[in-house]
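Run log, item B.
One chain of 176 residues. Sequence copied directly from the ordering sheet:
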Amino acid sequence: MDIDNYSYVSIPLQDGSNPYAIDYDPNASVMFWTDCNLRQIISGSIYGNNQTTLRSFKHYAALSGIAVDLISRILFYTDSQRGNIGVISLDEDLNKTVIINDLNSPQAIVTDPINGTIYWSSLNKIEKSNYDGTSRQDVINTGLSDSVDLTVDINIFEMKIKHALGDSLKVENLAM
């Protein structure tokens, strides 16, 4: 959406594209998205130019979630097919898998840049870990069916994680 005149703007994409997850860097006016058909993570200007493939996957990738930490300039993604979470540096040559063990179809992902923590949804639960994959723990592991999306609100005094659950939204307060 063009915020100056509140109109929708189409971004031209490569033929055969199927964008799935998206995040945005308002400082650089750059969007980041996963493409399920091309099996790529792509960045591009909000005006549709300067599209760059940040990472391509050879086979069987289902790129379900994407989250950008604007402070550290790193991008996290989930691959629900392979059951892992990866990280890409936006400024350096860093591209690695952070978590590969015991992930059951990771989907949505968000960052907490203040604490260097990622949160992600998978089947029936929401988990978190440090950016390097250490200190992994369940945040919510009961009462969930399909967590579709996550958002994090960081305020001075509290942090809330919002997740979709069927036809409702749930808000969980988390200790900082």
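Observations after the first pass:
- The two ends are 33 Å apart (CA to CA).
- DSSP finds no helices and 15 strands in the chain.
Flagged for discussion on Thursday.
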